[in-house]
Sequence to fold (626 residues):
Amino acid sequence: MKHLSKSWVFLKKYKLFGLALLSLIIGLVLYFSGEPKITKYLLSVIALVEVIPLVWSMFKDLRVGTYGIDVLAATAIVSSVLLNQYWAAIIIVIMLTGGEALEDYAERRAETELDALLSKAPQIAHILRAGKIIDVKASEVQIGNKIIIKPGELVPVDAIIIEGASSFDQSSLTGESVPISREIGDELLSGSVNIEGAITAKTIRPASDSQYEQIIKLVKSAKNSQTPFVRLADRYSVPFTILAFGIAIAAWIISKESIRFVEVLVVATPCPLILAAPIAVISGMSRAAKNGIIIKTGGALERLAEAKTIAFDKTGTLTTGIAAIKEIKTFGQYQKADILKFASSLEQNSNHILALAIVKEAKQEAIKIPKSSGLKDYSGTGLEAIVAGKSILAGNMTLMKNNNVEIPNSFDYKKNKDTVTYVAIDSVLSGMITFDDQIRIETKSTLDRLKKLGFKNMLLVSGDLEQKTKAVAKKLGIHEVKAEALPGDKIRAIEAITNRPVVFVGDGVNDAPVLTVADVGIALGAQGKTAASESADMVIMLDDFTKVATAREIAKNTFKIAQQSIVIGIAMSLVLMLVFSTGKFQPIYGAVLQELVDVFVIFNALRAHGTWKKTKLSKNSLGQLK
Fold:
């Protein structure tokens, strides 16, 4: 039934093309059977009937103040019928309706990756309850459920592995074709495919908030959005129409033969203008999706291709967003290793980002982390415990003051501008650990690529301290900096930019407002970051900064091909107009040649779908998936 339904939609959509083609066949049979009059009336009537939807579409465009370039085609069809060139008229009709069929083919080919993504949505989950496996709908899975994922199955919802290990194919989510190894403690994204052994996992998000569902929502938005494809064609449509009518009228006046008017307009139909831009844009959007970049509108792709300025958030965008120890300072008798040992003993009980960095550093330094007792968690300020018979405090200065910690007279904590964890031993401040946010390995090379791709201005907009923001900007060669910026300050900074269009790249929830006001908002690494991804025009599903440059390359390539297709189509039509204005060729030959021009333009525009190879992910990016 589903197949029959699709077939009926197909037949209904192309009934005009089918009617015109059938009429041509019947007309040929009648003509060679000695019935030229019947042939004339049949083809003329069908041509005029089929021009009605075209005229009605033009009328609706004029009512809303837009100019439809279909006026050339409509004029050519009507003029051909009036001057008894009914063969040319029916071929033009076939050309226009057949062009729609080719465009539909192009769209369906270009949207293959998007449709594949939508069709592979997880449907069933195997929940483990009281030692039994129960199959339920993926939409019914709740946070905390234990699920079994067998080899070859989709991960139904976002989860963390609690038993087993396997490799997972995430290509439909991120564009990365290389399987990713996952083991106990690693997060699984819904929609990825389990390749090897069965694993047990604990769900961390309901199906409605899982990664795959977020991608599907974005893809549906991209498919359903009303994109201003015709804007590129608008730059050429008016002069092309004026030129075509000018040549046609001049040929008529000079020759005093009305047939010359039809002969010119037959080869001036505007299919290159109508088809080139949308096919190239849809192809470009599909190519981006294959690289893990969801582009919501064709307009956003066009603006990205033309943008002159690009602005970035710092933390989590240009940097990893993962804290790393910058320096360990000591006061008094203790060594750096002692400070790290005592701090890691407390922090191994915490999931805070700074705690994880301390424990990681201790393990890298091969320090044996001792056990602690009597742990107290002071929410928002730090931890307290007994380690090796000593009272240890690890946290911020508020914790130190609240516990009357003795601070050396020579130390002025107010001068410190870094993120810091203070460590007190037996009520005496004995050390401090400062942290830094590391610049991504791929950031500098990607910025260099973006400069080569035509971005004249680069701006760093961050809510972080001015000193730290400027230090990052200096390392990366960014000269314009706006630091200590709240979301409202970021918006004002973007609005103040005069060299537009402007692109903003961010990753966090606090970037959502500025992603909305930028001409093109790009959300980086949108795993679970719903606010940012919904506000952005483009969403890079993987936390890989190189994809920003890939998106720009695809955008520029797409519109280069679209523009090239339009210009070539117009040039070929212009040559044909001049040739047919001589009156040496019948209009029917022009109609056939124009059809060949349209086919060439369509398939040239399809090159936007397959020019770019998948960008390989850096090792750094692959590591961040874990």
Q: What stands out?
A: The radius of gyration is 33 Å. The CA atoms of residues 344 and 360 lie 9 Å apart.
